[in-house]
Amino acid sequence: MKKYTVIGFCVEQAGPLALLQDAGRFGVRRLGVTQGGPADLYGWAWANHLAGNPWGAPALEVTFGGLTLVAERELTIAVAGADLGATLDGAELPLWQRVTCKEGQRLRFTAPRNGLRAYLAVAGGFVAEPVLGSVACVVREGLGGFDGQGSKLAEGDRLSVGEASFAGASISEAPQEARFDYRAPARLSLLPGAQVGEFTGQSLFQAFNAAWRVDDRADRMGVRLTGPRLRCRIESLISEGIGLGAVQVPPDGQPIALLNDRQTIGGYPRLGALTPLAASRLAQCLPGQEVQLVAASREGCLAEHRRFLASVATPSVSAYHPP
């Protein structure tokens, strides 16, 4: 716990799914405990950066909207990621920039207009007791969150925040080119995996040339993609560790991209793995949205990720531009 905390917000209306997320829970998958953390690392990182917080500070992941918070004191906030029709006392809230929220004002997230998940960061970060080294909220496992038991926000909850410090703040508004239009077709970088050679030639062509659509069977565990049926010569595998972005192909031939709350092992053959930024982009897609898988090199993906980290860490490096 931070030494200095105060109540920052009171929850007036909870909405369907609002979760506290820091960078994630690492080093515990051997115990069967998943990673958690922000489904959209990109939007989460930018919200914290604009609020002047260091990497890893807990922020609020708001899915779909329907959330209303009342400020208990004057706060400095930033909202990045999806446009969920956020308003402050009825006036449209500027996104991707630092904003002052005065005591008594109502911050409301209504419904998706561009993307699925918005991230609310407050200067000083939200504060909760860590569980297994993290406050990342994983509802299925009953871990993390403001109560330590994996609970999503509920009406009447009071949210603690830490002492604000702008020592790490560099800019108060993200450049226009750093902001996503989540409505556009998504090109998802995929690193081919160990079993990619076991898929038929036609399936590999279809995997990287066909348009896939996001199925309505999607959550923080994973996203099912619908399109041509992919065929693999491997009928069964011994279960092995599953990382973020792993693209499994079950017997029905429809890929499943695994996200932050995924299981820790799996036995379906894999095309490979989406990069963290590609997994983030997929997490912002609504059902029915079109995506394309793009085979990528380790070197290119690593360079892209380093540019992203630099853009939300120091003012001396130009902002990462989404592809």
TrEMBL record:
Query: Can you give the residue ranges of the Carboxyltransferase domain?
Result: 30-308
Mind telling me which InterPro entries this protein's record contains?
A: CT_A_B, Cyclophilin-like_dom_sf, PxpC
Q: Which UniProt keywords apply?
A: ATP-binding, Hydrolase, Nucleotide-binding
- Name of this protein: Biotin-dependent carboxyltransferase family protein
Q: Which organism is it from?
A: Billgrantia campisalis
Lineage runs: Bacteria, Pseudomonadati, Pseudomonadota, Gammaproteobacteria, Oceanospirillales
